[in-house]
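Dear colleagues,

I hope this message finds you well. In preparation for our joint manuscript, I am sending the GAF domain-containing protein (Shewanella eurypsychrophilus) sequence together with its predicted structure, so that both groups work from identical material. I would be grateful if you could confirm receipt.
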Amino acid sequence: MSSDFYQTLNRQAQALLQGEDDLVAAMANFSALINDTLEDLNWVGFYLLKNEQLVLGPFQGKVACTRIALGQGVCGSAALENKTFRVADVHQFSGHIACDAASNSEIVIPVMSGNSLIAVLDIDSPKLDRFNEIDQIGLENLVLSLEKALFD
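The corresponding structure tokens are as follows:
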């Protein structure tokens, strides 16, 4: 995907989120937008930080892991380190949690309110090395729009 693609997608996300302050509703439509727009995905959704663990939130895809400990798997690592994790081959990631055996690559982006972690956006693909730097920057900008809509 190109940066122009992500700029257009970001404008769509901003329009979708405008005036919506409910976390679940916003995350549900946000994950649906990404799932419907990006190619080669098999899971898009959120894990919310609750009681020092990640708990399944709104998503698009097959049945998923319900709870993930901080520091466990790609999602837990991204949450613990508070940074984006882009993994070309999840089977090479130490401690990977295989919620869906069809997933081969993954990107996980923290969702913040100020300095506090609220959730992570988790996107999986059956394709190895699906996510590149352009995807990472574009998706991080989408998450910034989500944060601004919900927490500013």
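For the figure legend, we might mention the following. The radius of gyration is 14 Å. The mean pLDDT is 94.

With kind regards,
E.M.
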